[in-house]
Amino acid sequence: MSVTGSRRHGRKRRGEELMVPHAEFGSYYGRPIIKAPSWAARDIAGYFFLGGLAGAGSVLAAGAHLTGRPRTATALKASSLAAVTLSAAALVNDLGVPSRFPNMLRVIKPTSPMSVGSWILSAYGPAAGVAALTAATGRLPRTGAAATTGAALLGPALATYTGVLAADTAVPAWHGAHRQLPYVFAASAVAAASGMALVVGPTGENAPAICAAVLAAASEQIAIRAAERDLGMVAETYRSGRAGTLLRCAEALTVAGAAGAALLGRRSRPAAVVAGLALLAGSACTRFGIFAAGIASAEDPRYTVGPQYAAMDLDPSEV
Predict the structure, then answer these.
(1) Which of 65, 120, 212, 229 is the most buried if burial means most Cβ atoms within 10 Å?
(2) Phi/psi of residue 95, nearest 5 degrees
(3) How much is the pTM?
């Protein structure tokens, strides 16, 4: 039946019974409308989290370096190197064949988030390594300062490009939030990096990390709420199931960590460490929760068929 015909005959008129039953969303042979990503949650959601921790950590490390907080700067440079190493290992493990990663560097495609991200990761890694090595040994300070600056300049791109990468797919819960997802990832990355600074840095040097934690916690919640408004019915995937549980935990941990840091972080070393661990755990839950929401939306026809009718201002039962 055509759309106009369905509007003429299928709509319930006053005093008449609806002749066409309400639609149940489904697909041919019960198969998903779109193919869900084959990414493993442990590898790719972990890659999202660790990349954000590394990138934002380098920015905070550069700030600590410039403002005379050497212990915090050195510790953050080391943690950023460890995080990007583990992040690259997770990506290579998900690719299955290690040679696939260098093959992605044979060309650069500015329109491909995966291609651009591979180059960002390849450039950031050596800069983070030199920055950490020179800070730990105390040698070649000028080289170390240049590497610290380079890592800090690449850090924001490393922390957020994965949000662009996810939003560039056909997965409803990610693509529908393409405007907000990079901001969510940026705020989550800053929360993780500030949490790491609270854990590894001395209490006397953690004032900037506390400010960053508070701003990141507020920004993350604002961005997620904005994403849910834009997603419409697909926002259910952010509130239910495994994703809903993870994102509720993320909110509780991030807000509690930021509040604890603001109230007690400058006076108590144990409180600062606990707050930092809460921020790290909250950031990880955010990445894993958004990943789970995307997989759930790709596997459920309600979130692939229903929004198409909503965009055309149609009731599915009329078609």
Answers:
(1) 212
(2) -65, -25
(3) 0.83
pLDDT tens digit sequence for 278-291: 999 999 999 999 99
For the record, the structure tokens of 250 come out as 């993320």
What is the rounded distance in angstroms from the CA atom of residue 70 to the CA atom of residue 76? 10
Residue 108 CB neighbours (<10 A): 11
Which pLDDT score is estimated for 132?
Answer: 96
Secondary structure of residue 291 in the 3-state scheme? helix
Contact 54, 84 (CB under 8 A): yes
Residues 6+ apart with CB under 8 A from 91: 43, 44, 47, 101, 121
pLDDT in tens, 226-240: 999 999 899 999 999
User: Cβ(164)–Cβ(182) under 8 Å?
Assistant: yes
Name the residue among 84, 107, 316, 64 with its Cα closest to residue 207.
64
Q: Is the pLDDT of residue 136 over 50?
A: yes
- 101 versus 165: the higher-pLDDT residue is 165
Residue 208 and residue 285 in contact, taking contact as beta carbons nearer than 8 Å: no
The single-letter DSSP state of residue 218 is H
